[in-house]
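== Item description ==
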Amino acid sequence: MNILELSEQEIVRRQSLEELRNMGIDPYPAAEYPTDAFSTEIIENFVDLPKEKDEEGNEIPGKATPENSRMVCIAGRMMSQRIMGKAAFAEIQDSKGRIQVYVQRDAICPDENKDLYNKVFKKLLDIGDFIGVKGYVFRTQTGEISVHAMELTVLSKSLKPLPIVKYKDGVAYDKFDDPELRYRQRYVDLVVNEGVKDTFLKRATVVRTMRRILDEAGYTEVDTPILQNIAGGASARPFITHFNALNQDMYMRIATELYLKRLIVGGFEGVYEMGKNFRNEGMDKTHNPEFTCMELYVSYKDYNWMMNFTEKMLEEICVAVNGKPEVEIDGKVISFKAPYRRLPILDAIKEKTGYDLNGMSEDEMREVAKKVGVEVDETMGKGKLIDEIFGETCEGTFIQPTFITDYPVEMSPLTKMHRSKPGLTERFELMVNGKELANAYSELNDPIDQEERFIDQMKLADKGDDEAMIIDHDFLRALQYGMPPTSGIGIGIDRLVMLMTGKFAIGEIMLFPQMKPEKKAPRSTNAEWAAVGVPEEWVPLFNKAGYYLVSDIKNVKAQKLQMDVCGVNKKYKLGLENPKVDEFESMIEKANA
């Protein structure tokens, strides 16, 4: 890397790196470092020594030594350093928390050579470096449980400085709180911001608990293809890629549904998959094109059974994550304790808008949409119209978990017709805090009915609906071999984690959410600089001095430009021959030409 692309601190850290190597210290050792304790465990299990008596008979704290105290070997990132002559304090951050380390010169340098303390620890180590410490646990005079270092090992040199938050008079400075930076550099966010790692530990608890519940119920976890010939199982716009070996376009899956149903046909009684789905649609605080979903299919069950199973599972997950079946989000207490309210979708629309859509024609629904202020277009059939009206007028009002049930057949091409309500299907969506969390059906297993519904979907596609399903002939063939009565559900893991952790943005609960490319300051090319007389080897010096575009030098005086650019040459000891003032004048004239 060109030295001119580095900050002052980065240059100093690289110089320290070289000094370490010159001293025979490997800044990136390969050998195992045998840690045997974590910071939190050391603090939790600390036991004070028995008190002693001084010469006057007064009780004083017992003096800790390597012989009478617990010996530990810890490692972590150095997050602070306070040097006081021959002794110093440092704070080590490991994967569990932080602990103070007392570093005394003669303790880590028992021989005559004191370089490990005087040079390495005091001068060559920086905040962010990883070190290993072997020593004994004690309590300082101020009462802080610490580790008295007897050995110190450099484990990894950090070349970029961490953004360390500073506090003065209760005000935080240099906070690393810009969401775009935090999401893009999650590795830094996890190190410096308290509570971030805890969110992802809770996410792991959500997934682990859900998997345990499904496994204990006797269902089998499986893997199905991500690259698919047909994007099916949901209504969504897919990502398209090219499969070179087969010389054909493929779709990244938008759902796992159709493959999981094939397994039910094949004889599995219950199957589930937790994996990534991809939908080439919008991005906002609650949507990411790449997301994690759990889909479950169980034979001989219906959507009523699935509602009962789902509410019990979510209650158990909430207790596992938060210690209770409630969670607070933006001042609202949301209870996941079963049972949940069950409300047919057309009843929900009537309850919120006063309009009964049951039995209405497509044109009549368009009129209702206009009256309630919902924008629709000519490509939308009945299903899309109902979906838009519900989404705009009702969905956001359901804060407590509510099963919205009995969707019209036009909205549910993979769902079994309702057993007692003509024109409706046995489907539910679970709404929580104004958003959909789960989608479930009594699955359609009539192959003739399924084929007719696929044909209806293709008609919508012909009208311009780019989210309509494509006919999957192999799936139809599978159904013709017979699929037992089955209930299925899809739960968005990301949205579930948002609810369980009280977060409002999906980026807060995804380790690495999709981001736009990093913005880089525009720079003139070497050829553009050459056109005004700047040699290629001098372009980095102009950039380091703050002149990124040829136009940046137009209104600069030649003497200032010379001082700025030649100052870089001198400061970094680059050894280039400095141009004269008249050469800089010529550059400025050509830039203004």
